[in-house]
TrEMBL record:
<dbReference type="InterPro" id="IPR036909">
    <property type="entry name" value="Cyt_c-like_dom_sf"/>
</dbReference>
<dbReference type="Pfam" id="PF13442">
    <property type="entry name" value="Cytochrome_CBB3"/>
</dbReference>
<keyword id="KW-0732">Signal</keyword>
<feature type="transmembrane region" description="Helical">
    <location>
        <begin position="249"/>
        <end position="268"/>
    </location>
</feature>
<keyword id="KW-0408">Iron</keyword>
<keyword id="KW-0472">Membrane</keyword>
<dbReference type="InterPro" id="IPR009056">
    <property type="entry name" value="Cyt_c-like_dom"/>
</dbReference>
<keyword id="KW-1003">Cell membrane</keyword>
<keyword id="KW-0677">Repeat</keyword>
<keyword id="KW-0479">Metal-binding</keyword>
<protein>
    <recommendedName>
        <fullName>Cytochrome bc1 complex cytochrome c subunit</fullName>
        <ecNumber>7.1.1.8</ecNumber>
    </recommendedName>
</protein>
<dbReference type="InterPro" id="IPR009152">
    <property type="entry name" value="bc1_cytC-su"/>
</dbReference>
<comment type="subunit">
    <text>The cytochrome bc1 complex is composed of a cytochrome b (QcrB), the Rieske iron-sulfur protein (QcrA) and a diheme cytochrome c (QcrC) subunit.</text>
</comment>
<keyword id="KW-0349">Heme</keyword>
<feature type="signal peptide">
    <location>
        <begin position="1"/>
        <end position="34"/>
    </location>
</feature>
<keyword id="KW-1278">Translocase</keyword>
<dbReference type="InterPro" id="IPR050597">
    <property type="entry name" value="Cytochrome_c_Oxidase_Subunit"/>
</dbReference>
Amino acid sequence: MFNTSKKNKKGRRSPLATVSLLAVALMTTGGAYALFSTSANADDSTNTTLAASSQSQVNEGQKLFASNCATCHGLSAQGTSEGPSLIGVGAASVDFQVGTGRMPLAAQGPQGEEKPAQFTDQQVDAMASYVASLGPGPSIPSSKLTDGAEGDAAEGAELFRINCAMCHNVAGAGGALTEGKYAPNLRDVSGKHIYEAMLTGPQNMPVFNDLNLTPDQKADVITYLKYVQDNKSPGGFGLGDLGPVAEGLFIWIFGLGAVVAMTVWLTAKTN
C-alpha cells in the first residue's frame, strides 16, 4: 500500500500546470482577436476613406455640372427642351463628350464639333462620376482595351470595314453625311475616345454595345486604326484616302490628260 500511494502521488498533475494552460489559451485567443479586429478596422478605415474620396469627387462634379451644363440638361440632369436627359448615359458618355471638347456646345448646329477641351482631366472625371451616380450606364474603359497594343489589326480591319467604313471611310478619314452632318476623321483620336464612341453612340453614330461588338473586338478595331495612323499609304500619295472614286477621277483627269497632251506635243513636233 505504501508503494501504490507513492506512485499515485507522483503521477498527479500539478495545479500550476492547469493554470498555465488556461493562461496560454487566453493569450492566444486574445491575440488572434486583437489581430482580427485591427485588420477589420484597417479595412473599414480604407473603405471609408475611398468612399469619402469618391463622394467628394461626385460633389465636385455636381458643382461643375450646375455651372456649365445645367442650362441645357437641367439642374438634376433630367433634360430640357435644349438638351437630353443624362440619367443613365454613364461615365463613358461624359468622358467622350466633354473630353473631346464637343460639350459644352459652342453654338447650336447639326452636330457638336470637336474642339479643345475646356476642362482638366480631373474636372472631366469629376463630372463623369457625378453623372454616373445618377443611374447605371457604360463606364470608362480600361487602358488595356484602348491602348491599341493588345488587339488583332487584321481582325479589326475586317470589323471596321463591315461596321464603320461606310461613314468613316476605310482608312478612318471621315466623310460627309446628310443635313450638314459628317463622320469625323479618326486619325488623331485617342483609343479611349474611340472605344467610348463605339460604346455610347454619340450623335449620328449607332451604339455598339458588348453584344454587338465584344470588348476584345472593340480593342481590335482600335488596334487597326492605330496601325493606319502609324503607317502612311504604302502606294505613295493617298489622295486624302477618299477611295476609288477620287482615285479614278484623278487618273481620268491627270492620267488621260497627260496622254492627250503628250500626243498633241508629238504631233505638233512632227508637223
